[in-house]
Design brief:
The complex is a heterodimer. Chain A contains eleven helices and no strands. Chain A is mainly α. Chain B is α/β, with parallel strands linked by helices. The chains are: A mainly alpha, B alpha/beta. At the A-B interface, helix 8 and helix 9 of A face helix 2, helix 3 and helix 6 of B.
């Protein structure tokens, strides 16, 4: 079920041009703040823009941010975690302590701070979210490496002459992929929510480009007259984030032999 | 005297821990000739594995190793990392105790064997695979072609240990160090693995260092035996000599503790009283004194040095003798 929603959301985002009934910025002055009707399934906003179309287009920003932020965080965090965990020594101590310090900041605070420094745009919001997601991933990658380097097959490989690159690339990394995959599916929804927050605060996607956060922000003045304007993008965020989370849980159950099914 | 393949002289290993220095190995000397099987016997924690690991520089950084390890004319102690890497697996390989966890669970057997081969020899993928088949065949794995495509969890413990041996033999090493190769396996499988090791020695001429706490395994396979106690060599002799004329009271105690069918009429195995001394606080006297029926004043005041009491039979005891 969660997989269906996730796949559906990704497809909607990728093929927004064809899926959405209207272009996201097309205004219909005949129907301002319209209720749901046959022409506008979820109604329209204050400028007569179709809410459904904007949600579909908004999925693009959200999923882009969620996906690329996670990829960025993984690309930076995993090598650092591997190196710290494998070579230990003073470098590991430094990395572990810096990570601990950064972990003291809540994810969103860190992301908001970084986005404020970088300046508002989808790219910068993605960067900020990606950077903010690095510390916990470093910790996980490092922890896994620490555990895996003590495995017998790693010791056997060392004893039989494997070099560090082979050990890290062939023995340690492949054995931690399932953990990383699960962590990725949990990082993506965090980044999706993060993108909505940043856009809502005006630090992410800029209006009139649609994004769920932007739509929530724009809906604020009309909460009384047209609450549905805030409800639909809010629901979209909840459903997609929840779907990713459940997918992560499901993946963990499948990939982790320790949990009983 | 024949040429020596591996010559370990006065090897000492010290671990510096928070609780002080631990002398895991104290002035060990070993020699290994081509095609020879050397058994190293002792209780858990007597330093036998540490000795083996230190030969290839596989100990953690907290260990301080002194002495000399001469392999085929080159010194291995303090050799560069890259030099050691060339020796590891290629000239001297290891087989560990735990076959169940010594294979990487995420790759097929074939890929793992291929990789070891490609790492050390300049061959193509296809040649590596051919060699992998040959190796599995060598270690008597039935239907090797199918096994290559299986994952480690699909194999039994004995099969996995055979795979480990196959990987260790990938580059025709001169020495195979087997650290408790059969301890984790049940008895019938043990015999199979020992037969395999014997065959390896016969067919490939590989010298084997066999580390075990099981005297039965040594009696079965080894040419020469070193008995270790508390990081030191207690006794060394050719295998028949050792079993026929054990000199050190510790060796005699170990032999008494081997179960034999029909031997123990009173239904009880002989045990050695007391326990192994902590290596952190080795005494200034014979380490075995408090467990030894022969201990006297001298045992309690001096450390016995190794001396030859019979032809080619050395023992570190003030009161050697068979009874």
């Amino acid at each position: 079920m969660s997989l269906l929603i996730v796949v559906g959301a990704i497809l909607a985002a990728v093929f927004a041009e064809w899926v959405a009934p209207y272009p996201p910025e097309e205004t219909d002055f005949e129907a301002l703040l319209a209720s749901p009707s046959r022409e506008h399934l979820l109604g329209t906003d204050d400028l007569g823009r179709d809410t459904l179309s904007r949600i579909i287009w908004g999925a693009r920003a959200s999923i882009q941010a969620g996906f690329f932020a996670t990829v960025l965080a993984m690309a930076v965090a995993v090598p650092i975690g591997l190196i710290a965990g494998y070579y230990r020594g003073w470098l590991d101590t430094v990395i572990a302590r810096v990570t601990d310090v950064l972990l003291a900041f809540p994810f969103l605070i860190l992301a908001v701070g970084l986005a404020a420094i970088l300046g508002p745009s989808l790219l910068n919001a993605t960067l900020a979210l990606g950077i903010a997601a690095i510390p916990p991933l470093i910790r996980i990658a490092r922890g896994e490496t620490l555990a895996l380097r003590e495995e017998d097959y790693v010791r056997a490989a060392v004893a039989n002459g494997a070099n560090d690159a082979v050990i890290i690339g062939r023995h340690i990394l492949p054995n931690m992929t399932s953990t990383l995959l699960v962590q990725a599916t949990l990082t993506i929804p965090a980044a999706i929510i993060g993108e909505a927050v940043l856009s809502f605060l005006g630090l992410g996607v800029q209006p009139p480009t649609p994004s769920w956060g932007v739509m929530l922000n724009a809906a604020q003045p009309y909460l009384n007259e047209a609450p549905s304007l805030a409800v639909y993008p809010g629901l979209a965020i909840v459903i997609v984030a929840l779907a990713f989370n459940l997918l992560g849980d499901g993946l963990r159950d499948v990939l982790d032999p320790k949990t009983e099914r | 005297m024949t040429e020596t393949l591996l010559d370990v002289r006065d090897l000492s290993v010290r671990f510096d821990t928070d609780d002080g220095a631990v002398h895991a190995v104290d002035r060990m000397s070993l020699t290994l000739e081509p095609r020879q099987v050397l058994g190293i016997v002792g209780e858990s924690g007597c330093g036998k594995s540490v000795t083996a690991l230190s030969i290839l520089g596989l100990l953690p950084k907290t260990a301080t190793v002194t002495g000399s390890v001469n392999f085929d004319g080159t010194e291995l102690l303090g050799a560069s990392k890259s030099h050691l890497r060339k020796v590891r697996g290629r000239q001297i390989s290891f087989v560990f105790q735990e076959p169940m966890t010594s294979l990487n669970p995420v790759f097929r057997i074939g890929r793992q064997v291929d990789e070891v081969i490609q790492e050390h020899m300049n061959v193509s993928k296809r040649e590596a695979r051919a060699r992998a088949l040959e190796l599995l065949d060598l270690v008597h794995i039935p239907d090797p072609a199918r096994r290559l495509d299986e994952y480690p969890h699909q194999l039994s413990g004995g099969m996995r240990q055979r795979v480990m041996i196959a990987m260790a033999l990938a580059c025709d090493p001169k020495i195979l160090i087997a650290d408790e190769p059969t301890t984790a396996l049940d008895v019938t499988i043990q015999a199979g693995i020992l037969d395999l090791l014997r065959e390896v020695r016969e067919r490939l001429g590989t010298a084997i260092v066999l580390i075990t706490h099981n005297l039965g395994v040594v009696a079965d396979l080894a040419d020469r035996v070193v008995v270790m106690y508390a990081g030191r060599k207690a006794e060394e002799a050719p295998v028949h000599e050792l079993f026929a004329h054990p000199q050190h009271p510790y060796t005699i105690g170990l032999l008494g503790a081997v179960p034999r069918a029909g031997a123990a009429r009173n239904g009880r195995l002989q045990e050695i009283p007391g326990r192994v001394p902590s290596l952190a606080e080795l005494p200034g006297h014979c380490a075995f004194a408090d467990r030894c029926p022969r201990a006297d004043e001298q045992s309690w005041s001096e450390v016995p040095e190794l001396r030859e009491v019979r032809r080619d039979h050395a023992v570190a005891c003030f009161h050697p003798g068979e009874q």
